[in-house]
Each structure stands twice: as structure tokens, then as C-alpha cells.
Amino acid sequence: MKFLKVLALTAAISTAAFGSTSALAAGNITAKQAASIAAKHVGGRTTDVDFERKRSGNYYEVEVKKANGQEYDVRIDAKTGKVLSVHLDDDDDDDWDD
């Protein structure tokens, strides 16, 4: 009985380890890598990173703030690390103009 518990635990650990490395084997980048790419591309510091799943492909939505206070939303392809888009986030959270 103890042998079966050890065997089941080993199988569970192996499956978990395989699952976590399969994303890397598929060529996916990490959130940390996406943040670094976005910060370097815009020339600021990362304030937030979100992973988005879409039918067209997965990407990271990275918020980057420059020294002058401007904030940018940068989309990074989760598979290749390519910058997909950069948009100035000019939302001042002011509801007076909504």
C-alpha cells in the first residue's frame, strides 16, 4: 500500500513538472521577460503585467510608466516576445469628461 502512495505521488510530481516546463518548451516567454521587453521598448519602468488569452494568440498586457509621468500600454506576444502594440494611456481617470 505504501508503494502505491509513493508511486501516485511520484506520478503527480512528474505531471506537474512536465506541465510547467511544457510552456517553456513551446517557446512561451515569462511575465518577467515580457515586462523587461516592454520597459526597454518604451524607456520606463513596469507598473503592471497581465496575461491575456485570446483565440488569435496569447499576449501580455504590460503597463509602463516613463519618468515624465506618461503611461503606456504595451502588448507583448507571449510566444515570441515581439512587441505587438504600444498605446499612450491618456486616461486621467477624470469622470468629468465621460
Automatic annotation (TrEMBL):
Superkingdom field: Bacteria
InterPro entries in the cross-refs: PepSY
PepSY domain ranges (all copies): 29-87
Keywords from the named record: Signal
Residues in the signal sequence: 1-25
Signal as UniProt keyword: yes
Name of the protein this chain belongs to: Peptidase propeptide and YPEB domain
Biological source species: Moraxella caviae
